[in-house]
Write a structure and sequence with these properties.
There is one protein chain. The chain has 2 helices and 7 strands. It is of the alpha+beta class. The protein has a single domain (about 5-95), classed as TATA-Binding Protein (2-Layer Sandwich). Strands 1, 2, 3, 4, 5, 6 and 7 form a 7-stranded antiparallel β-sheet that branches. The radius of gyration is 13 Å and the shape is globular. About 30% of the residues are buried.
């Protein structure tokens, strides 16, 4: 799997992995915490399509979620998050295939 980075309708970056399943949201959140120093802002919200996790580091806020249209996504809330989404996306492309909860580790 590989993601794509593009701009949302609001003009901010999002990293989308269309073929990813919703069960990758929490492993991705963990990677973002460990590798990029983001914290979960509040308890995840569970929407009809999957979990929505708001994360923050200083004044930078991002959202990690999954929906039927984008698959898994990491999205900037404003322009301060754009550079971080680009860095996170590049890193996730190198590790996302190893994050699947159902992946055979043996």
């Amino acid at each position: 799997m590989r993601g794509i980075i593009h701009k949302t309708h609001a003009g901010f970056l999002t990293y989308d992995v269309e073929e990813a399943e919703a069960d990758l949201v929490f492993p991705v959140v963990s990677v973002i915490q460990k590798q990029f120093g983001f914290d979960v802002l509040k308890l995840p919200v569970f929407s009809l399509t999957g979990p929505v996790v708001e994360m923050t580091r200083g004044d930078v806020k991002i959202v990690v979620s999954w929906d039927n249209w984008s698959g898994l996504f990491v999205m900037a809330i404003d322009e301060r998050g754009d550079p971080e989404v680009a860095k996170i996306g590049a890193h996730l492309d190198s590790v996302i295939n190893d994050l699947s909860p159902g992946k055979d580790k043996g």
